[in-house]
């Protein structure tokens, strides 16, 4: 073998050896790159999964917060409604449950009923009760003519308190049984329209200044006339 051939072989061997080393380094670098890509992909997947987990937790926390807010608002509404009902109940209690002198009066009524007093009798006593009154002077009695028939005659009227009150009487069924058939008509102070009452005695009370004037009409001993008795009284 010639020297030239041996050198060529040595060069070829060195070249192959260099190519082998280069291939090894390339494979090593490729492996490193693959490992890096895998690690990067894994990190990205883990990061994506972590983001998804955080997003899910955030949504759950938001839903829970909204539910708690709604519950707090519901409780606030129920509290306000309960407060309003309590205020209404207190107002009804104050308005409907008697206190003071009224409570004492009702207690006295209950005691009388419990003692056996009949309820109708007690009710009639309450209805007929009236405040004590002080009357100025003796009653005034004034006679006036009873108009026969249905039609009233202005000249037959009796007037009181300087014309503030007018009283008339007529006998539509004649002068027999006047106590049942005589019609007495009151007009004037405080009456929007005349008031006609059949049968006597007939009474009407008028407010004159600070006094209550009660006019009572009855038959008169003088035939064809009625008698009006006026008592002007005030609360005692």
> What is the H/E string?
HHHEEEEEHEEEEE
Number of domains as seen in the coordinates: 3
The average pLDDT is 79
Q: Could you estimate the helical fraction of the residues in percent?
A: 40-55%
Measured by DSSP, the beta-strand proportion falls in: 15-25%
The main sheet comes to:
5 strands, antiparallel
- Report, as a whole number of angstroms, the end-to-end distance: 165 Å
Contiguous uncertain segments of 5+ residues: none
- Radius of gyration over C-alpha positions, nearest whole angstrom: 58 Å
Question: Keyphrases for this structure?
Answer:
236 residues; alpha+beta; 3 domains; five-stranded antiparallel beta sheet; five-stranded mixed beta sheet; 4 helices; 10 strands
List the helices and strands and how they pair.
Blueprint: H1 3-96, H2 100-114, H3 119-128, E1 133-135, E2 140-145, E3 147-148, E4 158-160, E5 165-171, H4 178-181, E6 183-188, E7 195-198, E8 202-208, E9 211-219, E10 225-235
Parallel strand pairs: 3-5
Antiparallel strand pairs: 1-10, 2-10, 4-5, 5-6, 6-7, 8-9, 9-10
